[in-house]
Amino acid sequence: MALRSSIGRNRELVRRALYGLSAARRVANKVVGGKPLTDALKAEKANLEAHKRARKRRLAVDDAIEAARQVYGRTLGWYLGPNENHCPVCVDANGNNFRPRNPPSIGLPGAAHPHCDCSAGAPFPNGRMLN
Question: Is the sign of the CA dihedral 21, 27, 29, 32 positive or negative?
């Protein structure tokens, strides 16, 4: 059973609604621009599949963050993953703390970028808070 928080569920509902509006806008713009409706819908189907993959990843990250929060409390630490291709954002975040209920502007560990393998764990005693 998922440990998804109500905040995570609410964020996901907002994302789904925004996706629906954006999808309708993209299809309408293509049709108005002269493309056949079937072509516009085919393009949007590919976009939907990418959206579903991103959603699955976000939900997995939400579950991992919620599990860490259950163990360590409201403040968590940012840990680099084993991947050696770390982006500068994750390198800067490593060793610092954040609150999942007020996530840092860079996102959450594991979701900061498409191939992020960072994770949340015990807070760092001397870590600064990420904003």
Answer: negative
